[in-house]
Amino acid sequence: MTQPLFSSLALPDALLKNISTLGFATMTPIQEKALPLALKGCDLIAKAKTGSGKTATFAINILTRLYLKDLNCQGLVLCPTRELATQVAKEIRRLARYQQNVKVVILCGGQAIGPQIGSLAHGAHIVVGTPGRVQDHLRKKTLMLNKVKTVVLDEADRMLDLGFSDSIQAIISHTPTHRQTLLFSATYPKEIKQLSKNIQHEPEEVTVESTHSANHIRQAFYLAEDVSKSQLLLKLLGHYQPASAVIFCNTKKNCKEVGTFLYQQDYKPLVLHGDLVQKERDQVLVRFANQSATLLVATDVAARGIDIKHLPAVINYDLSRDPNIYVHRIGRTGRAGKQGLALSIYTSREQHILNSISDHLRYALPFADHHQLSESLHAPKNAPMVTLCIDGGRKHKIRPGDILGALTGDADIPGDRIGKIDIFDFFAYVAVDRNYIKKALGRLLQGKIKGKKLKVRRL
Questions:
Q1: pLDDT digits (tens, 9 = 90+) for 311-325
Q2: Which of 68, 103, 202, 280 has its CA 20 to 30 A from that of 312?
Q3: Residues 316, 320: Cα–Cα separation, whole Å
């Protein structure tokens, strides 16, 4: 059965055209079920996994309700992590291109509060943030929520896991009583039901199957018995040779050790964990998403913040004790109907964890024997792209087209050799085909972007 089209909804023509240019035509199951109810103004409890299209669901709903002449906050999205908030804001901005001057502001900890206060002073139609930093702004009275029409709790289960229940309810107490509240969660524990009871009015419930289909994600569990976990990881990388993969560890210490080990084996992994400052995290995520690195070793801080359309593989170097986290991790691959690979390393002492995952997924786990893996003699491949960092961003009025024009015009680099361009407030990042990197760097160092001489460096 074919999925319904976005054009079947009563959306503005300009928004439908923009949705089409972004490559969306048919709705995902969560969009099909939740969007019509949201557009009617209903409160919602939507149970859906990562990568199901839920961000577009609530973003489209918020955008259709905006009154642009009013620069007060009209849409508030709360997220558990900085990475997810950044990803959500980016998606909202993409969808908002059909109308001019939609102001989206990100409010997260780990970043200076001064520039955030400055951004809010100029107005914000939509605020995306983490509960702690949003509360900071409410206390300072630099953020007012009395004009909010829609509140979204994205990955509400994760926010409750992190202890944000009281913060969420305190924030919502600043919003109008007659508002729309949309709650999105991968799981539906009793704490979610209680939170809904406290903040929602007769919510409609929407559920999309949250376990992962074996049709899209091939899973395999390998026992590290007569081989170390690090050597088994090498065997998995050599046998499967994924074009890119996220390797999950449970601790920052393991992350660093695995990253160092892989580097010693001539891989060039990126490492993402809680000790990194925000700028370092941004750079890691940008470089991995734009194919400037093939391996990312990460703690679960990354599981909800990686915005990659097609991630070929996920490897669990450490198994999480929480089966929900296992589901979130492997949900990074096999998205949008594409095939994915989820490989897990376990020890003989972790049988109880395997039982818990199997019970949660409701099927027997597929075990495999590492002795049957072929050991590749091929050297690790270089990533196809290289990232250049430009010391100018959104605050300097730099747009993707300015960078693209400088490289394809003056430098005469083919457009299909330029990858993702990411614009932040004070920095911009552009991925360039490895074979053209010297030419691109030379052009940007010698020339100007939008009449400005900007510093550029290779990451």
A1: 899 999 999 998 888
A2: 280
A3: 8
In this structure, what token pair is assigned to residue 228? 């170390």
> How far are the Cα atoms of 13, 90, 94, 286 from residue 97, in angstroms, in the given order?
13, 11, 6, 21
**CA 49, CA 325: separation in Å to the nearest integer?**
11
Instruction: Name the 3-class secondary structure at 170.
Output: helix
Question: Model confidence over 265-322: pLDDT tens digits?
Answer: 999 999 998 888 888 988 998 999 899 999 999 998 755 566 676 889 999 999 999 8
Specify whether the CB–CB gap between 57 and 193 falls below 8 A: no
Lowest mean pLDDT among 51-60, 232-241, 270-279, 403-412: 403-412
Contacts of 169 (CB under 8 A, 6+ apart): 195, 198, 199
Judge whether 383 and 296 are in contact, CB under 8 Å.
Answer: no
185-208 pLDDT per residue, tens: 887 778 888 999 999 999 999 987
pLDDT digits (tens, 9 = 90+) for 85-139: 988 999 999 999 999 889 999 999 878 899 999 999 999 999 999 999 999 999 9
In a 13 Å sphere around the CA of 167, the CA atoms on its Cβ side amount to 22
The two structure tokens encoding residue 308: 């990659």
Label residues 431-451 b or e (16+ Cβ within 10 Å = b). Answer: bbbeebbebbbebbeeeebee
Beta-bridge partners for 428: 390, 423
> Is residue 373 a contact partner of residue 419, using CB atoms and an 8 Å limit?
no
Question: Do strands 418-423 and 428-433 pair parallel, antiparallel, or not at all (unpaired)?
Answer: antiparallel
Report the distance separating Cα 166 and Cα 333, nearest Å: 33
- Structure tokens belonging to residue 186: 């991968």
Q: Is 418 helix (H, G, I), strand (E, B) or coil?
A: strand
d(CA 187, CA 207) in angstroms, rounded, equals 10
Are 248 and 314 spatial neighbours (Cβ–Cβ below 8 Å)?
A: yes
Q: 60 to each of 57, 94, 95, 300, how far by Cα in Å?
A: 6, 11, 7, 28
> Which pLDDT does position 189 carry in this prediction?
77
Distances (CA, A) of 437 to 207, 244, 386, 389: 46, 21, 7, 12
Whole-angstrom Cα distance, residue 141 to residue 156? 25
Question: Rounded CA gap, 105 and 92, in Å?
Answer: 11
Mean pLDDT of the chain: 88
Length of the chain: 459
The end-to-end CA distance of the chain, in Å, is: 46
